Task: inverse folding
């Protein structure tokens, strides 16, 4: 994940993020059938996802520590990989929330611990099965290094 962050005042700022990750899906046909009369095997779809968001930041500096909370929205682009047949791309809105702590080691270098949560409609990548009409929650605990100018 790449985050570009700007804190406008001591308590309020914003960030733009871009992330890339694997988003494989497995589709299973579920129906009311007599035992063993519906032998349909699950269909797996390999996919990549790219998430682009804009978030509001709320933070307060306490010495070398800066706890923060964030809330925002963006777009989740899910694309099947490898030329799989009977697949399609899926784009969905995503809501983002999170919290974390920045620990300043030097004036423009520090360590970050962060939790991000994403809520979005499940991607419908397979054309043979109808996709789940449900919302998913993805938890993203992270650690990293930050650098400021």
Result:
């Amino acid at each position: 994940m790449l985050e570009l962050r700007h804190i406008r005042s001591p308590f309020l700022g914003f960030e733009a993020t871009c992330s890339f990750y694997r988003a494989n899906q497995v589709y299973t046909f579920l129906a009311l059938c007599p035992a063993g009369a519906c032998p349909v095997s699950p269909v797996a779809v390999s996919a990549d996802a790219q998430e682009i968001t804009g978030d509001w930041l709320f933070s307060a500096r306490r010495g070398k520590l800066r706890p923060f909370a964030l809330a925002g929205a963006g777009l989740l682009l899910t694309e099947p990989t490898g030329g799989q047949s009977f697949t399609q791309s899926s784009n969905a809105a995503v809501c983002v929330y999170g919290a974390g702590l920045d620990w300043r080691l030097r004036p423009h270098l520090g360590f970050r611990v962060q939790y991000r949560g994403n809520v979005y409609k499940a991607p419908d990548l397979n054309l043979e099965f109808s996709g789940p009409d449900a919302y998913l929650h993805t938890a993203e605990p992270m650690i990293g290094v930050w650098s400021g100018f």
Summary: The radius of gyration is 20 Å.
